[in-house]
Write a structure and sequence with these properties.
Helix content is 37%, strand content 21%. It is of the alpha/beta class and 309 residues long. The strands form five sheets. The chain has a six-stranded mixed β-sheet with strand order 9-8-5-10-11-14, with helices on both faces. It has a two-stranded antiparallel sheet with strand order 1-4. A two-stranded antiparallel ribbon has the order 2-3. A hairpin with an 8-residue loop joins β12 and β13. The longest helix is centred in the C-terminal third of the chain and has 26 residues. It is elongated and about 75 Å long.
């Protein structure tokens, strides 16, 4: 009998605290069923579609009080102009995502972000999918591919796939983005989780490919503070987690040039995400992932986003 797949990247307490923050798309979506998101298909406010159970974050003005009076349960009226969301994750599983302590690696952090968002989206009736990969000789760009679907059974399959993600090989994120752009036929929210530690030159073109397909793009850029601040005080051997040679260096001799190179790298990232107009979140591994997700969700809520300005 196969060992059960661990889902320790999910924290029930965090899920409970974040359930009140809905996942909102910034652009109109095209879904298969009625839901909470704006659709480009025009409908009438009198064009009733169906009822669905109320979830925290729904507009209380759309509660059906007559149904509440009969059943003592809260239901929302849905109209044809509303649709469900497809939330698809593209996760970098290259070797550099293994950076960190055991149980607290960059990939572990990514699993918590993706698993939590997938759970929240499923609870509000949305479809969730996963595309994860790295470049290994003879492999496709995806080591895991789960097309977006709805329902608790599919959520269980997707969470199991997240639990099986491993970090190895060279990065293949750009190729994975292009492939996902072709595979995801209808408009979706695409959440990319990566350290972006590769040649950034082709990244903007990959973002533009997603935007051409009318997708709503968000990115979590996972970094460790040591990678930015470089606070080493003795000769250190640096390992290439993607298969390159190790390097023994005296930090005092390279610290200034390293920080200049990092500044140039971050400036390039800023330029790409600003020109591509994506929802970008630079996230350090010492920040609780709950805080990163709360900031992401509140930034997409029109009410909380306005009040934060």
């Amino acid at each position: 009998m196969a060992d059960p797949i661990q889902r320790d990247f999910l924290d029930p307490a965090v899920l409970g605290r974040l359930l009140g923050l809905p996942i909102n798309a910034r652009h109109a979506m095209l879904g298969s069923v009625s839901g909470r998101h704006r659709s480009p298909v025009r409908g009438s406010a009198l064009e009733f579609a169906q009822y669905r159970k109320y979830v925290p974050g729904d507009d209380t003005r759309r509660l059906d009080w007559r149904t509440w009076g009969r059943t003592d349960r809260y239901y929302i009226k849905e109209f044809e102009a509303d649709t469900n969301l497809r939330l698809c994750f593209i996760v970098d599983t290259s070797g550099s995502m293994a950076y960190g302590e055991e149980g607290k690696t960059r990939l572990d952090y990514a699993k918590s972000i993706v698993g939590t968002l997938a759970y929240l989206a499923s609870q509000q009736g949305d479809a969730v999918g996963l595309y994860a990969g790295s470049r290994n000789e003879g492999d496709t760009p995806f080591t895991r591919e789960v097309p977006a679907k709805r329902g608790p059974r599919h959520l269980g399959v997707l969470l199991d796939q997240i639990g099986m993600l491993e970090a190895s090989g060279e990065t293949g994120l750009v190729e994975a983005i292009h492939q996902a752009a072709e595979k995801i036929a209808q408009r979706a929210m695409i959440v990319i989780v990566s350290d972006l530690l590769f040649d950034l030159t082709p990244l903007q073109e990959a973002f533009q490919h997603l935007k051409f397909r009318k997708h709503d793009i968000a990115a979590f850029h996972l970094l460790d503070r040591n990678e930015i601040e470089f606070e080493f005080d003795r000769p250190t051997r640096f390992l290439d987690l993607e298969g390159g040679p190790s390097l023994l260096a005296d930090p005092s001799l390279i610290q200034q040039r390293y920080r200049e190179a990092v500044k140039g790298y971050l400036d390039q990232v800023n330029q790409i995400v600003n020109q591509s107009v994506i929802d970008y979140h630079r996230t350090f591994l010492d920040e609780p992932y709950e805080q990163a997700l709360a900031r992401f969700l509140m930034g997409r809520n029109p009410k909380t986003a306005r009040s934060a300005r």
